[in-house]
């Protein structure tokens, strides 16, 4: 079974703090993704990575950065957390063709106060 | 610009009834259409997917109907059960050279006894 784990299920941070969200997958997948999920807005792609040290901006990258130093680990960084970044953050991974399924982690609910 | 429009936002169905969720897309280059199911506190998980070379795909009680000319696809859940209560997301992507799934905004399904 594919397993995608996220470092925290719940996180509370203060405005202006630097926040790290960690994601690890155990299936040797090339592609990894970070989404945020907000009620009524669905899943929106923040960043994705198609290989180690490679990254691409998604639809809403502003205020975020990412790091992928090892194939199994993809980190999302909020350089200076703001209240509008309070959300559910979901990490996903995907192998190469023909398997296009994205496997999601359980999510991290981040609250910025 | 929202590329995948999903309706309804919420749906209440009696146990044993048929649940129908609809999606419409704009990008004619899309050629992979998955549905994801998400239970509270969990990440989304792939439920069923279709490619445009077929008009229907069935897996157990779940069926995707696909209308390429109308650029629409829908999820039908037959004999809906309380355990089907979840949020459902449609999505679309281009298989060749793309890593991104574009998601609809989700439908919260409640199946009442």
Walk me through the topology.
The complex is a heterodimer of chains A (113) and B (113).
Chain A: E1 4-6, E2 10-13, E3 19-25, E4 31-38, E5 42-51, E6 54-57, E7 64-70, E8 73-78, E9 87-94, E10 103-104, E11 108-112
Parallel strand pairs in A: 2-11
Antiparallel strand pairs in A: 1-3, 3-8, 4-5, 4-9, 5-6, 7-8, 9-10, 9-11
Chain B: E1 4-7, E2 10-14, E3 19-25, E4 33-38, E5 45-50, E6 56-59, E7 62-67, E8 72-77, E9 86-92, E10 102-103, E11 107-112
Parallel strand pairs in B: 2-11
Antiparallel strand pairs in B: 1-3, 3-8, 4-5, 4-9, 6-7, 7-8, 9-10, 9-11
Output the radius of gyration of chain B: 14 Å
Class of chain A, according to the CATH hierarchy?
Mainly Beta
Would you count the extended β strands of chain B for me? 11
Mean pLDDT of chain B: 92
Specify the number of helices of chain B.
Answer: 0
Provide the helix percentage of chain A: under 10%
Tell me the β content of chain B. Answer: over 45%
Major sheet attributes of chain A: 7 strands, mixed
Low-confidence stretches of chain B: none
What CATH architecture of chain B would you give? Sandwich
Structural class category of chain B: mainly beta
The value of Rg of chain A in angstroms is 13 Å
Q: Give the mean pLDDT of chain A.
A: 92
Number of helices of chain A: 0
Structural class of chain A: mainly beta
What coarse outline of chain B follows from CA principal-axis ratios?
Answer: globular
* Integer count of domains of chain B: 1
